[in-house]
Design brief:
Elements: E1 6-12, H1 16-31, E2 40-43, H2 52-55, E3 59-60, H3 67-82, H4 84-87, E4 89-90, E5 94-98, H5 103-115, E6 120-124, H6 126-136, E7 147-151, E8 155-157, H7 159-172, E9 176-178, E10 183-188, E11 195-200, E12 203-212, H8 218-224, E13 230-234, E14 240-245, E15 248-257, E16 274-279, E17 283-284, E18 291-293, E19 297-304, E20 309-318, H9 342-355, E21 373-377, E22 384-388, E23 392-396, H10 407-415, H11 430-433
Helix pairs in contact: 1-7, 1-10
Length: 447
């Protein structure tokens, strides 16, 4: 495909957000009689699903302590549910299994899920929680658990398959997708804050609107747009903190135990919900019984035929390097810096055995090889969905991205002038105004 001289809508990034926005924007233009998908161009520096969306675990959940995140995720689950076969989506449900320190948080999540009509079951009490899990898995043995939040909706999707499905939906609406096209910079209007053109390694593309959905590469686009590298943040006590770094990176840890996925069926022979467990019970090695940690820890896992095993991960690690000095490329398994090693394999395999007896003695079956990825996080670890420089809509997912397939629909509506109530809590102005999202007791930065 040749590079067009001008387009109405230029979307940067062919992952979950860019393609979802393209698909929904094309449909909205047509339904409103304002045009069609031929006005939209998606550019991607590598290939479709070559970034964070292509290495994502694929979990879809509503388990958030923050009310705004719960409402946003309920909307996204509706999109996943709308076409599960095409999206390669498995609506098996999701379980948050927690220790006493998280009881109040999880109870609050359940009550607010009820208030928005999101189907879930809450079990409280150590014996009650253990019995509930034992009724699902007869070999359940995790200790230090006092609550279970069982979301009946949600589940997981196969990462690359679902992204290609989105690409097909967008192309069927007339959207053009140009891969192998790298953004080099932007041109701005004379006397105007707006972007007039995007400079790429294949030439300049004039445009009326720009939509950015590039995941961990947002730092680079942000800098090209000459947006602030440091900001002021008002905390919950009203104190202002100046010169706070805009971006930080976390290293994501995930892997696969190469066993038959059917090994993880429930007592009644069905595929189980996605399991997420947090606990402060000591974790000991399944190999030599040495202590791995006596601090709060957490893992998630699921049987997955796409990965051909039991796939999941644990809490990410904060990258101490200043954001501008982090090497995002090469990304994921191709990186020489940010891939999981033997420490993760040992911890995660032992944690699986902590949870269920069927995983004892299986650590040698952990799939060797490079895996992992980087996430570009905001100061409060939650997304930013906002408009900058008059005509640039930025989707900064703060690594909540893959599950948020519905964000593209909301952004598409805003591009055409309809402000979204669901996106309002995620504006950039919240930092200066002190409207930050509440923080949970989870060991994960995105819960």
């Amino acid at each position: 495909m040749s590079v067009p001289e001008k387009v109405n809508y230029l979307i940067i990034g062919a992952g979950i957000h860019g393609l979802s926005t393209a698909w929904h924007l094309a449909k909205l233009l047509k339904s409103k009689g304002k045009g069609d998908g031929s006005q939209i161009l998606v550019i991607e520096k590598n290939a479709i699903a070559s970034g964070a969306s292509g290495v994502a675990c694929g979990v879809v959940r509503n388990n958030y302590y923050q009310p705004a995140m719960r409402e946003l995720m309920a909307h996204s689950v509706e999109i996943w549910d709308s076409d599960p076969e095409t999206f390669h989506y498995h609506p098996v449900g999701y379980m948050q299994i927690s220790p006493k320190i998280m009881d109040e948080d999880i109870s609050s999540i359940y009550e607010q899920q009820k208030s928005i009509g999101y189907d879930s079951v809450f079990i409280h009490g150590e014996k009650e929680s253990f019995d509930y899990m034992k009724n699902i898995f007869n070999d359940w043995q995790a200790q230090g658990i006092t609550s279970v939040l069982h979301e009946k909706k949600g589940g997981y999707a196969n990462n690359t398959s679902s992204i290609y499905a989105l690409a097909n939906k967008a192309e069927n609406e007339g959207v053009r997708i140009l891969t192998g096209t790298k953004v080099l910079g932007f041109k701005f209007g004379n006397g105007s804050d707006a972007v007039t053109a995007v400079e790429t390694d294949k030439g300049e593309i004039k445009c009326d609107q720009v939509i950015v959905g590039v995941g961990p590469w947002l730092r680079d686009i942000w800098n090209m747009l000459e947006l602030p590298k440091k900001i002021s943040i008002k905390d919950d006590k009203g104190k202002m903190h100046d010169n706070f770094p805009m971006w930080k990176y976390w290293f994501l840890t995930e892997g696969v135990l190469t066993v038959d996925p059917n090994m993880q069926i429930t007592n009644d022979g069905k595929m189980p919900p996605v399991i997420h467990i947090d606990t402060d019970a000591p974790l000991y090695s399944d190999e030599d019984k040495s202590l791995i940690t006596d601090k709060l820890w957490g893992i998630y896992y699921k049987p997955d035929f796409h990965f051909n095993g039991i796939q999941g991960g644990s809490s990410p690690y904060k990258v101490d390097t200043p954001a501008d000095n982090v090497n995002v490329d090469p990304y994921g398994p191709d990186s020489s810096e940010y891939v999981v090693g033997s420490d993760f394999a040992h911890m995660w395999s032992s944690a699986l055995a902590f949870c269920q007896k069927r995983f004892e003695g299986k650590s040698h079956l952990y799939k060797k090889g490079s895996t992992g990825g980087l996430g570009c996080f905001t100061p409060d670890n939650f997304p930013i969905f906002d408009k900058f420089r008059e005509n640039v809509h930025i989707i900064a997912d703060s690594n909540h991205g893959y599950k948020m397939i519905g964000v593209g629909k909301l952004v598409a509506s805003e591009i055409l002038g309809e402000n979204s109530k669901l996106l309002e809590p995620f504006r950039f102005s919240r930092f200066k105004e002190g409207k930050l999202h509440p923080i949970s007791n989870s060991p994960f930065p995105w819960s």
